Amino acid sequence: MTTRAPSAAFEPHRAPVEPVPAPSAPARARSARARLLWLLVVVLALAATMLASVAFGSRTVGWSDVVAGLGGAEDTLEQAAVAKRVPRTVLAVLVGAALGLAGGVMQGVTRNPLADPGILGVNMGASLAVVTAVAYFGLASPVGYVWVAMAGAAVSAGFVYVVGSLGRGGATPLKLALAGAATSAAFASLVSAVLLPRNDIAGGFRLWQIGGVGGASFERIGQVWPFLAVGFAICLLSARALNSLALGDELAAGLGEHVVRARATAALGAVVLCGAATAVAGPIGFVGLVVPHACRLLVGVDHRWLLPFATLTGAVLLTAADVVGRVVARPSEVEVGIVTALLGAPFFIHIVRRQKVRAL
């Protein structure tokens, strides 16, 4: 008995599946050219903001004095002002780069578009650790500030993640943001409680609590630079692993990625950057939130491009905010932490109000 193949009339109808075409070589070339063009724009913007930082402030300086001051001359008040602004500019660049990169890494590690060192309570945890160590344990070493700040940042980050993971759904973006906001408020109150009875140290910490880069010196930069360099290296080398984590833990593991180790390593780099930046400049918020989102609009979600762009753009944003703070309130100045809060708070509200803000 022979069997015949079923006729096409009795076969179920199946819509043809068309393969998704891969990007063509010209499209990839255009994308690479666009990214390189944006890279050039960001580098030029960084150079312009650095020049503005040494030229503008409570005293406007002419370009001839800027050139002389950069060369080391301090014959006039203008040249002396330039020489004093140079380390401040360098510190603003380093702190802004650290916070921008840390924000990009935190958003990648948690797949949370609301992740930010300030919103998640990391900066305030570092601040509380430093204030407590100074008030009760006599900490006086600038290098000790960095170690204590990193420890406080790590403990705070872990605490917020555990609290945000409780209940149904695990660590959702909104739950983490709420846990971080509550933790930041609690830690800020504890900082005030520690400082109020200690008039001997309260004055020095008052401006530091707001966040700023005034009073910078190359000596302070030299003390914090090794920690920043380690944090930069760890975070930038984690870019490929963060791309895998963005696909989901199961798929990342299937691709051969050690999920726990990759997430812990990247988080360690972000904590080192946040701790070092907070130790030298105080708890500056919203840079790590705004910068990665802006960079995704320019270069996409590939962390191999996103993290370097977030580093440079964070430096541009904080340096520009410092210049604005010095210019708008002459002859006084507004601390850079206040300027970034004024810029970042509306942006944060906009992100929260967006629909489907569950994961990157």
TrEMBL record:
- Highest taxon listed in the record's lineage: Bacteria
What organism is the protein native to?
Answer: Streptomyces mimosae
Instruction: Spell out where the chain crosses the membrane.
Output: 36-56, 86-106, 118-139, 145-164, 176-196, 224-243, 264-285, 305-324, 336-353
Asked whether the UniProt record includes Cell membrane among its keywords, one would answer yes
Q: Which SUPFAM superfamilies match?
A: ABC transporter involved in vitamin B12 uptake, BtuC
For this UniProt record, give its keywords in alphabetical order, as a comma-separated list. Cell membrane, Membrane, Transmembrane, Transmembrane helix, Transport
GO MF terms, alphabetically ordered: transmembrane transporter activity
What protein am I looking at? Iron chelate uptake ABC transporter family permease subunit
Q: Which family does it belong to?
A: Belongs to the binding-protein-dependent transport system permease family. FecCD subfamily.
What does UniProt give as GO cellular component? plasma membrane
Organism classification, top ranks?
Bacteria, Bacillati, Actinomycetota, Actinomycetes, Kitasatosporales
User: Per UniProt, what is one Pfam family of this protein?
Assistant: FecCD
What GO biological process term is on the record, naming one? siderophore-iron import into cell
Question: Principal place where this protein is found?
Answer: membrane
Q: Where is this region: Disordered?
A: 1-25
Membrane topology per record: Multi-pass membrane protein
Compartments annotated for it: namely: Cell membrane
